[in-house]
Design a protein that fits this description.
375 residues, alpha/beta, 11-stranded mixed beta sheet, 8 helices, 33% strand, elongated
Length: 375
């Protein structure tokens, strides 16, 4: 028994006599913690420690009310200011003290305006974006983002930034409106873009139910717009209306249940490319190309169906190019016709793998006059 005790004692002594692990030191930062094994090779952790260590304030028992009189800066930024200040309030408060000016600059550097956390409405976020764009040059690869949180955001009234028919005018280039997903973030109202470059809509549902309202109204020969993972539905008139030389790409989008048309593209030099997008259950036609406009359809998930009149219509020298095999069921199940083209130089054609075209020949039914009457 004694031998056993002595043996255990020797084992315990040997453990106590083990030399402490040599702690690594990086740029003056000590690594602590019971699970630390003597070295760190994770560059991500090293980078985080380098950035956070200068902001840390350690408790000092000799300082009375330390965290009342000397609140750590990181605590101000992450816990105190966020619940009480939106960007509009902060833009005023920053003039009162240099600390708030620093906080303002920190938020600006993130290139994100949050709705409703940073701004209560989409209109106010647009107004703030104008100010930001005047003071910083954003680019296609470094855009200003308006982050719309989950829920419903309404565009209402008539302000400097709101056009008729509840459409917010986007008057900045290099700006992205991004939601939490088309099933989570909804815009009640529409957007108008006129001669702005690299505007993007991502992860949103847009619905402008007012009479004659369009979800996205995009125009101007300098306009370039990307629409990604969005739904544009239940609009009073048209889901997406593109004209006057604008260039638009819509990827994995749904244009559905609109009062007249899902997609309308018209006038010379106007181009819209639809990739893996659906156009369905619109009350008149699904896709219209008019007056020298060009529409390109890509992606095997492209599906145009169940529209109340026609699936695809082209007239007045417009072209719809379907970059899919002719056997792909691109337009089907529409109430009257799946494809209709005027006989005045317009065309709907499948582009085959060898570069040849497969055209659809249909008769002119006076559709142009009917469209003009409806608009």
């Amino acid at each position: 028994m004694a031998k056993h005790i002595m043996k255990r004692g020797r084992e315990d002594d040997s453990v106590d006599r083990q030399p402490p692990l040599k702690r690594q030191k990086i740029d003056g930062i000590k690594w602590h913690g019971s699970s630390w094994n003597g070295k760190t090779t994770d560059n991500k952790i090293i980078d985080i420690m380098k950035r956070l260590t200068p902001l840390a304030v350690h408790y000092n028992a000799n300082v009375t009310n330390q965290f009342i009189r000397d609140v750590p800066e990181l605590l101000w930024w992450q816990k105190i200011l966020k619940p009480f200040l939106n960007l509009e309030d902060l833009s005023i408060l920053r003039r009162c003290h240099t600390f708030f000016e620093k906080y303002w600059r920190n938020l600006k550097a993130q290139n994100i305006i949050r709705v409703p956390q940073g701004c209560p409405t989409v209109e106010k976020a647009m107004a703030l974006a104008v100010i930001f764009s005047e003071r910083k040059e954003y680019t296609e690869t470094d855009p200003l983002k308006i982050k719309l949180e989950e829920g419903v955001h309404e565009i209402v009234g008539y302000t400097e930034y709101t056009q008729h028919r509840n459409a917010l005018r986007v008057i900045c280039s290099h700006i992205t409106f991004v939601g939490s997903g088309k099933n989570q973030t909804t815009i009640r109202g529409g957007f108008t873009v006129n001669n702005q470059q690299h505007v993007k809509f991502e992860g949103l549902t847009v619905t402008n139910s007012i009479s004659g309202g369009a979800g996205l109204f995009l125009m101007g020969n300098e306009t370039t717009v990307d629409v990604l993972n969005c739904a544009v539905k239940e609009c009073g008139s048209t889901g997406i209306f593109v004209q006057d030389g604008a260039t638009v790409t819509a990827t994995r989008c749904d244009f559905m249940e609109n009062g007249h048309y899902g997609v309308l593209c018209q006038s010379a030099n106007t181009e819209i490319r639809l990739i893996d997008s659906t156009i369905h259950h619109n009350k008149v036609d699904g896709l219209i190309a008019h007056n020298y406009a060009v529409v390109d359809l890509h992606g095997t998930k492209t599906d145009i169906h169940s529209n109340k009149r026609r699936g695809i219509a082209a007239f007045d020298h417009a072209k719809v190019n379907i970059h899919l095999p002719s056997q792909h069921n691109t337009s089907h199940g529409n109430l009257e016709e799946d494809r209709f083209q005027d006989d005045d130089g317009s065309s709907i054609a499948n582009i085959n793998a060898d570069g040849t075209f497969t055209h659809v020949v249909v008769e002119d039914e006076g559709w142009l006059a009917l469209l003009e009457e409806e608009n």
